[in-house]
Amino acid sequence: MNVDFKKKFKGIISVIGASDIDKKTEDLAFEIGRLLA
């Protein structure tokens, strides 16, 4: 899909992932990624 958007999204997730909600954020990102793919 939109590569620019995916890169930005990944960057945001990386920042959020640094916190203690790491695993939940990762799962959520994976689900969103599947929906966008």
Automatic annotation (TrEMBL):
This is Uncharacterized protein.
